[in-house]
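Q: Sequence in, structure out?
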Amino acid sequence: MHPHPQTPPHTRPDTRPDTRPHPRPTTRPDSRAAADPTPKPTDRVPPGLFLVLIAVCTAVTAANIYVAAPLLPLIARDFGSTSSAVAWIASVAQFGYAAGLLFFAPLGDRVNRRVLVGGLSVVTAAALVVGAASTGAAMLAAAVLVASAATVVPQLLVPLVAARAPAHRRASHVAAVIAGLFAGVVAARVLGGLAGQAFGWRAVFLGAAGLTALLGLASAAALPQEGRRSSGSLFAGLAQLPGVVRMSPELRRACLRQAGMYGAWSALWTSLALLLTGHGDEGYGMTTGAAGLFGLFGLAASMVAPVAGGLVDRFGVAKVVSFAYVLAAVSVPLFWLGGAQLWALCAAAVAVHAALVASHVANQTLALTTTSTPAVANTAYVVAGFAGGALASAFAGPAFTQWGWAGVCAVAGIWLGLGWGAGAIRRK
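A: Exactly. Output:
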């Protein structure tokens, strides 16, 4: 069930006075080619293939945000530093992505998406090449910031996927894209760690640049040709953000709950390489490649996305989000125990990924269907999530230095409490 089962009343009976033969639907969310509220040119690729392409593109671009995290020990060694001293680069990537979402994602309602997707993919690839050539942490951080800010292609396209899906299958279609996103996050850790161990971290950045350019330009070519689709200032969507959030309690709740969930996950996941590769009391002494393989536990949990989509379609957002928070709360003490017991760390990794994926499918579906401006609402939702993740990562690094792995787990627990508590507040 959706908060807005059908959006405006133009989907079933008489769309307007007797216009059945004229296929000119400005908004028809339940038909075959459902609701792209934007122009309706002929599809360049079959819908099924288009969804697969978007999911794969999402995986590659999402990996760019996390490409540095499993490579931190190698980067630190190359720059003559310590892993904890360069851990802040991981949070720079998340702040960059949040900033890119804030400025670029609302443009999805206003400009030619083909040009925007192609241009941002090229910029991302170029920034990754600069990152590969970096000679110090500051230069690398600047390149990661630009790459992350430009790698917002999935969030330009997910409103299109949601709008074209039949109303009773919308969460399942969104879940397909989210499955791609989390597969990319896991691939960044697993493949990035292994490739970094074998070829060096710079080669990983170059490989990411090539894949980003290839998939980004292929996705841009698959989109229909569009002109500018809305009048007014180019950044009018950005100006709309505060009003849209203020007027929608459901959107606010989705933003706050996901900021808390994503922050808890991010604090744990971005610090995990420090625990796995560390030595002595605070570490398992693994190589970067072995630590990267740990991400396979997250891949298993990513399979939750299609199941979560079906559960949201059947039972609604609130029940799925509540279950996800309970699962995440259980994972935090398991992570703490995992500082000394590897089996607990493995179980916690599966649990926290499953919680994050289920929560994301439910909250993003709500964000996309609760207002009449889905691109703007989606921007608010994803910016809130990544801002929460970036802040938690920024606290997790110093917490690990000061209090070890227990400090990271404390940050995750605090973020979960803040997310649930803030999301429970209802304004009269």
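The radius of gyration is 21 Å.
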